[in-house]
Design a protein that fits this description.
There is one protein chain. By secondary structure, the chain is α+β, with helices and mostly antiparallel strands. It has 12 helices and 5 strands. It has a 5-stranded mixed β-sheet with strand order 2-3-1-4-5, sandwiched between helices. α2 crosses α3, α4 packs across α5 and α9 packs across α10. The longest helix has 22 residues.
């Protein structure tokens, strides 16, 4: 396994699971499973959905990720009113008690939306004109706000938000967490020579490749320009290097339009991987992965380097 002082190339090439022009199944995966508070999460939290093991697992994951804003976001989705987390948590408990009381009186489950609206209209009148938000429209708006419009990867804004939560969960659960930073080699030269449309298509294809070769639990984001990042939960440094190397080979073996004019005649990636250190934060993790990536650049590009151990 290479570190920032050496570079290794495996002999066996990676076989792509798709070809140019195939559908966007790999990319739509992350949109369909975007880590947001949706109808299922609301249903489980309110008790309207029970005995669904897969949804219970999804609920626990989302609740851990949102952590300090979960109930505030929950109330906002239901009423379009933003409360602080403490107030929202207390109101949510009151809403559940109100829901149980009304359901018993009527002899049927009134549902969390009706209970919430009635609570803020007739019980707690401190909120003026609460309204129920259309869930489909909300989900669409949220997904658009967290994804990159060109590649459909998660965007930088969402990455900056979610990496903090991944680090927090990893530290609290004592599980591994790794980060990969990837930069397209000679992309400016490729873009200038072939035009912005070809450059955009290359970004889209590389995004598809990264989503195709990473695990379902990994999160791919466009960090900016020609740089991508991959958050790898429950993944140690050696395994992260292997995943990154697989991505590197996949991009190298792909045939991009007019790439033969580039140095090396291939459009390639330089990647750096780092693991969350004991007591370390998200900024240090990003910095170490970024430094490893630039070490790969300096060593000749088209390589994966591991970050040095944190002091």
């Amino acid at each position: 396994m290479p570190d920032m002082e050496e570079n290794v190339r495996p002999d066996k090439p990676f076989e792509m699971p798709f070809r140019a022009g195939s559908d966007l199944t790999g990319l739509s995966r992350m949109l369909d499973e975007a880590e947001i508070i949706d109808e299922d999460i609301i249903g489980v939290e309110s008790g309207d959905i029970v005995n669904r093991i897969e949804l219970a697992e999804k609920h626990n994951k989302i609740k851990n990720l949102y952590n300090e804003s979960f109930y505030s976001d929950l109330i906002f989705i239901l009423t379009n009113v933003r409360l602080d987390e403490k107030t929202a948590r207390e109101d949510w408990r009151s809403i559940l008690r109100h829901k149980k009381h009304v359901s018993e009186k009527l002899g049927r489950n009134v549902g969390i939306r009706v209970a919430t609206l009635d609570f803020y209209t007739n019980i707690n009148k401190q909120i003026v004109s609460p309204k129920i938000i259309d869930m489909k429209e909300y989900t669409k708006t949220v997904k658009e706000s967290i994804t990159d419009s060109l590649t459909f990867c998660y965007n930088r804004r969402y990455f900056d938000y979610i990496i903090k939560h991944y680090c927090l969960v990893a530290r609290e659960s004592d599980k591994a967490l790794s980060l990969c930073m990837a930069d397209i080699d000679f992309f400016k030269q490729y873009n200038d020579h072939n035009g912005h449309i070809a450059g955009d298509l290359a970004l889209i294809e590389i995004s598809r490749i990264l989503n195709a070769v990473t695990a379902k639990t990994d999160l791919v984001a466009r960090y900016g320009g020609e740089e991508f990042c991959i958050i790898m939960p429950s993944t140690g440094l050696d395994q992260a290097w292997e995943k990154a190397e697989q991505a590197r080979i996949a991009v190298q073996d792909y045939r991009f339009t007019r790439e033969q004019d580039l140095p090396g005649k291939r459009l390639t990636l330089s990647l750096g991987v780092a693991a969350l250190a004991n007591g370390g934060g998200h900024l240090a993790l990003i910095q170490r992965a970024d430094e490893a990536m630039y070490a790969a650049k300096r060593a000749g590009r088209n390589a994966v380097f591991r970050a040095k151990e944190a002091p």
